[in-house]
Amino acid sequence: MRIWGISKRNLKEIYRDPVLVAFLLGMPIAFMLVFCAAFGGQHVNPTSISIADEDQSLTSSAFIDCIENVPAFKLNEIYTEESQARNDIENGKIPFYLLIPAGFEEANQAQKPISLELAYKKADPMIGQLVKPMVEAATLMFLGISPPINIDLKGTEVEIKNETINFLIPGVIVFGLMVLIFTAASRIAADREDGFLARMLTTPARPWDFILGYSLPLILVLIVSTLIYLGIGITMGLSIIGNIGLAFLIFFLTGLCSIGIGMIVGTLVKSESQSAISWVIIVPLSMISGALMSADGMPTGLKNFANALPFMHAVDASRNVISGCATFSTVLPDLYYLIGWTVVLFTAGIILFRRRMAS
Amino acid sequence: MNAVKTSKLVKEFNGLVAVNGIDLEIKKGELFSLLGPNGAGKTTTINMLCCLLKPTSGTASILGHDIIKNPFKVKDLIGVSPQDTILSKHLNCWENLSLMGEIHRLESKELKKKSEELLETMGLTERARDQVSKFSGGMRRRLSIAMALVHDPEVVFLDEPTLGLDPQARRAVWEYIAELKGKKTILLTTHYMEEADCLSDRIGIIDEGKIVALGTSEELKRNHLDSQSLIISAENFGTKVIENLRGKYSVVEKINGGLKISHKDLDFKEVIDYLYSQGVNIYSAASEQPTLENVFIQITGKRLRD
Predict the structure, then answer these.
(1) A60 and A11 together in one domain
(2) Domain B226-289 adopts which CATH fold?
(3) According to a count of CB atoms within 10 Å of the terminal CB, is the N or C end of chain B lower?
(4) A194 to chain B: which residues are within 8 Å by CB?
């Protein structure tokens, strides 16, 4: 069979090329280790908080005690005057401080509104964004009002050991599988560049023989790398509560979509270096799909766009399945999306390849 | 039926005309050589015939199958050895040949037999299991030719098959091509005049996208060389004798103590008789055999091409 002949050749070209093997195996391993080490720690380091207490009252002291008891905070400096704190920010000694203004106790007793200020360096606005909700939560706690957040974990019989890891890893795996877009594109592009593809185009092989002949070895790469991802994930503390087979199926279909996109890119570009254009697809798609960060806060239009593409479904479905919140029937719509996209992408790849066969 | 037929074949690349209305008819079993300077349109013509490029206009067929309407049928019948040696570099000889055989749906027994035969002919048997990335340029080219022939195609395109080969390897390839003569239709492009001269049934000289001369090697030499030359080695040419000769013949030049006389319809006897009558002591006189290179240069000129 022609597909088999081309596949065998492509597989040999992959596993006999030590640099390529190092990339294909090394990338998932390095990727997972780096991500888990950087973001997946069991305990996030507490944020150092400094406070300028201009009220100097019993209430302000009690509030400071309350903040000290918040595990996410580590009490750093306490100033009696704001000017000292401001000075320390400017000197780079502290990243930010919370100002408890004079009149805090009075306002509290009279139940009047009073503003707390959070001062941070203008050069580092992220710290403000990060700390603000934490301070708000601590304030609500101090004032005795329970925060209006409902945490609802359904069907979770086994405890998730590390929620950060369980959130991160499915996304990292999807991102890693998206890199197959580049791998697939560069395989075709390299053969086009050195003329091998042109030679093959003088044979009676059909467009689908080429597309499937290039894809089959990459499917093997997809399976091996998914196993590596899951293996390292579990070692790093991933708790697979749902059906691991279903999770694997989701990743497998995600990889197929990536290979399909790679086939299209590889068909369109002229050289191996041009296949780097794949990253223009991979990076934005991974961002809007919520693979590496939550995509909940995205504008509706962008979210709808991401939702029409396969990868957001892959991220959501794999997260839900791994954390035990979803079964086969609940992720079925996501699977349909992934299967549909796979079919569309491969068909498009074959059509485009056919068009480019004789130019 | 002609094995290869082209009619007013044209290929333009962004307004640049690479092939400009080529009409060719190559008979079944014929070995036809396309000679031409760099950029003359040889490879573009072959690329159209093996369905890699779509002609801008005109038609072509291989064994009656149109290259545009029926490309896959055409690809079934042809074998191509491209100008650049293109192999799958992490595969060994067997695997490269198997790849071509499998794509042409050759049975494994037949594939093995044909591969063994080709590896033997091309002198690659000993290294057959080595990855071709470790091969020398000559070995790669020999394997590349074998890949074009493994499926026993009826029409073979050999685009500069002996480029970069050492004389021994070149001769081995020539012998193999000569063996194929009559059995396969072969379209060969080459820069080696000797190769075209000794192998071809007919030669087409192509320049600036057009066939400018066509015929057997003898026909080309006869029809396109407008003067004959005589080389005379003698003891005592007098200045007057040379002046007289120059007055009568178009080219008279001194070479290595002798004379080379060229003229249209040169009468050798007349020259010799004249020299005798002038008392010149002649050691030897020989007519210079025209070469294909003389014809080629005369037709295509000496201007360097891009």
Answers:
(1) no
(2) Alpha-Beta Plaits (3.30.70)
(3) C
(4) 86
